[in-house]
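User: Small ask, check this?
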Amino acid sequence: MSEEVKPYNGEDSGKKEQVTKMFDTISGEYDGLNRMISLGLDQKWRDNVVKMIAAHKPQVIMDIATGTGDLVIKMAQQTDAKRLIGLDISSGMLEVGKVKVKEENLDSRIEMVLGDSENLQFEDNSIDAVTVSYGVRNFEDLEKGLGEILRVLKPGGILVVLETSVPTKFPFKQGYYFYSGIIVPTLGKLFSKDKIAYGYLSESASKFPYGERFNNILKKVGFKEVENELQFHGASTIYKAVKA
């Protein structure tokens, strides 16, 4: 189980409430800062997720922790899915995403939904594919959230997760800790409305049970055919799992 890291440690509210508050606050600046901090690599990694999903030929796709909708928009453009759902706990992020979906003329296929990943309001066995891009580390209860994803997936349905991880080889490991531990929080303090948010995002990334530990959590929850692919020497990892 991952160590719980919350954005605002001085507050008594739970992680879920704090994460919602944080993303509502930074929603207007999130896309620009994210591109800058990731050096644009996050877009390439999302493209790799889309390729995995497209190969499965799903008709109904749910993107959990969709944020401002980058991934769900890419999947609408690059797959033949008839229905796509972008779900997020932050209404602020969703409002930005709705504008982007409309600008791309995809509002007839993409539904942006306010919802909780740990209490999905969807029927059992109703979704062909689920994606989560940089969102599972924000789950308050990781196993519960993954269990909900397993529940709504159809048998044979696929889950693809893109999440931060830590490189293991020199000099990428040392470079990662310097960049994520010093550069990212500094950029956040300089350019973000929420001076704490990007420190939290860096810390939560470093504490997330990446690699084989996350593979084992997926298996424990009930997923099969679990595998992962490192992105940029392990700065992020894509996990793929199937509902039996």
